[in-house]
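Exercise: predict the fold of this chain.
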Amino acid sequence: MTGMQDFFGRAQAAPERVVVFMADQGRSYTAGALAQMAQQMAQWLAAQGLQTGERFAVLLENRVEILALVLAARQAGLYAAVLSTHLTADEVAYIVGDSGARLVVASDKTLSQLQGIGLPCWTVDEARPQAPSLHAALAALQGPPVDFADRPLGRDLLYSSGTTGRPKGVLKALWPAELRGQADPEAVSTARLLGMGEDTVYLSPAPLYHAAPLRYTLRALELGGRAVIMERFDAENALALIERYRVTHSQWVPTMFGRLLKLPAQVRQRHDLSSHHMAIHAAAPCPVDVKRAMLDWWGDILMEYYAGSEGCGTTMIDSTEWRLRPGSVGRPTTGRLHIVDDEGRELPAGEIGQVYFSGGGQFTYLNDPEKTRQAINDRGWVTYGDIGHVDAEGYLFLSDRRADLILSGGVNLYPQEIENALARHPGVQEVAVVGVPHPDFGEVPLAAVVLRPGQEATPETARAIAARAAEVLARLKLPQRMVFVDALPRLETGKLLRRQLKERFREQPQAGFALRDS
């Protein structure tokens, strides 16, 4: 029992309270309007035949309908698979199929990514030949409403890619029906840890298809607060919004901090940020000098956390703690930490190993029992796949996040997926992708390619390989540079020594041919 009303209960009590500001569109929404939209969507989903635990997909830019659809899923006991708008049509088709979605909700901007998807598609804009209007369908709803009282509460279904090259859905159990009408436990935990409540004004500058922006925005609403949502990130505009809406809480990735710090001094000092008392950040390691510069500017209001879509454990560290332990991502707030060696033995403080949590949330990777098994050791401890150590006081320091993972501007890029796309070109014999340092994005992908005999190592060849990959790969995943090598480093068993490549090109981030603007 949480003892706190959910969003719908709060909306019924204060329907005229403005709770969402779509900053770039200049539009605002009351709690009553958002709750009504979500409840109509829940009824519409039921009218489409969706039963408890079934799924639908959402492919939208930052719009209020994303929030309404996820709230509708909660009401109707469904899963809302929220997809990145940067995916190609091939990638969208794979996720929609893998998720088992019964239908897709899109917009004018994203309908082109649904070509040949083979499922009913609806648009939140005006009706198109390939997609009827969702809002028109909501207005035309007839018949007695479905009673959802006995259904469990639905939630999001977000996709977290892996080194196997294809995204995997992180499936968590539906909330029990007994929680209907109450704030969910994750929102209650957020209120306790981050001081969010009815006075909160939460700025979300990132895409809502990412786990943290979506979930924290909904938690702010669940707790009676308000959300200010940017359609796209702009550093100066973000500062202006903090001043205009008297923002109290916000969430960022380190790339955003870097862009804020690049603003001219007069621009940085122009805005009143006195209302802003907590800036949450995660998604990628924050360079120590960048974080120090932000603390010098904003004061000790930064709260960093380490977690994942899987929700198997969380650590947090506030600014005061971080100043004493630069580079740490904190101590556990959910679950208990364990550092484990390759043989499964727990390691003492100071020794580096794989990071596990016990006592945290449970999940499975949808349609991938093998990957689920790999994430859970014999003791039932769960890992995000990251490497690190704890100090004598239990503070976690990450050595490498998912050793092969590339963290670019707060977005996870997976080498195997990029390598599979590059290998489609007939001139490629072998390819390996690694992350190299970048002053703005933290890391960007670099491809090391072994060409087939007769192929010329020229800029034209590099661009042709990248162009072929771009047919199936989102632009942000494409390598920024390509290096042609005679051979890739491997063990006698054939295993790729990716770390050798990382170390080599970390010192030569400008090696090879440029494929796109940085």
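Check your answer against the key: The two ends are 50 Å apart (CA to CA).
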